[in-house]
Amino acid sequence: MTDLHRLSIRELSEGLAGSKFSSRELTEHYLKRIEKIDAQVQSYVTVTPEQALAQADAADALRQSGMANVLTGVPVAHKDIFCTQGIKTTAGSKILDNFISPYDATIVAKGKVAGLVTLGKVNMDEFAMGSTSESSYFGATKNPWALDHVPGGSSGGSAAAVAADLAPFATGTDTGGSIRQPASFCGLTGLKPTYGRVSRFGMIAYASSLDQGGPMARSAEDCAYLMNVMAGHDDRDSTSVNVDADDYIANLNGTSVKGLRIGIPKQYFNVAGLDADVKARVEESLKKLEDMGATLVEIDLNMTDAYVPTYYLIAPAEASSNLQRFDGVRYGYRCENPVDLTDLYKRSRSEGFGPEVQRRILIGTYALSAGYYDAYYVKAQKVRRLIQQDFLKAFESVDVIAAPSAPTTAYKIGASLDPVEMYLGDIYTIAVNLAGLPAINAPVGFDKDQLPVGLQLIGNYWSESQLLSVVHQYQQATDWHTKRAAIAEETV
Ligand code: GLN
Hints:
The chain is α/β, with parallel strands linked by helices. Helices cover about 40% and strands about 10% of the residues. The relative contact order is 0.14.
């Protein structure tokens, strides 16, 4: 079969169950596509054909014995921020270029239990800091819709791999938009779960109070399959919530769009820099939801101006603390011929970290220093609480809140945005992480250059089922999520 990459996760699951194809055939098909096409996209940092084929054979044997799960034998790509035993885990950084984890991240281990086949590890901004995937030590990943554009970031490799049909779905992480924004830039569906829903064990930390893993795929239905694997309590992550996860597949039709109250934040649609095409497509998608029975309710989110400064104090502060562990002593890159211990620390870190990571370590260290801690970090934590309260107040009168996922479509590679300009592009996503809420991106059309536009829906705590269900119903009534970039149409 030459078109296995066009099947949805449900179709893959049914095809494997009905012996229409084996996991080995499916896995070989994807490996062949990666070999032929990924040179143009550069979504993978590491491809693991031998391990993948061994896992595929094991999946096929399991199926023969009647012991298979729904996803046994379905391939996946993991963001290179999740530790994988025996396979390099780099977090897009030179400092981890030689790092082989002795254990699997919880979500990787859960994937193995579910029978997923790991195709490899996909590219990302260094330590998930960025919005373009260009800060990766391994070079920029390309947007499958226009190869001279970025796929977004930081989970740009995950988005590009799925958009080019080089993986049926992928894991991502979202500290301030890194699932939703690349999903938006690449025309995909991506879910950032409620903080604590998905285990962070073995996920290399950027900003621990904001980081959350989630699925990236073509549709809400495909995301639901991966959420069923990823979600749930984990004793090894003390911030993982001890409640049972939902069955996201069973709940796909659980929420009715009829009667759904969608909040439209006034402030969000007046942001300077909101592209006219993005605004138009998002408004059209909201009109469609209205036609399907939803009610649009204008709301206020008065803290909007505080989002970027608050996030860009808290995230770097936590990052500066988390990244202390990369010292050139225990693992990772070590400079050549250090003259003493200070020299070893200094040069290993200066040579091992890229400029964006160093910038954030400096900002974070400054914000946490004795003289400035109260003025910056403590203040930012207080504003963070106000931002959360703003959302909770809004959820008293609406069920979900709508926004663009990003003010623009994908940037050109090397557009050399200055750092502050890049940070401003995160305006629609970062508050969700500050508040710990779940949110989803759904593709809703294209701009004048045929680049994808995304709608973001933000839900109240633990409402992942509702978000997936609303998008699923939108996707039953529209076909944006089925559109494919030319490069994904290439057969090999
Ligand atoms: N673009 C944001 C940042 O650079 C978000 C990144 C993320 O979610 N990991 O911090």
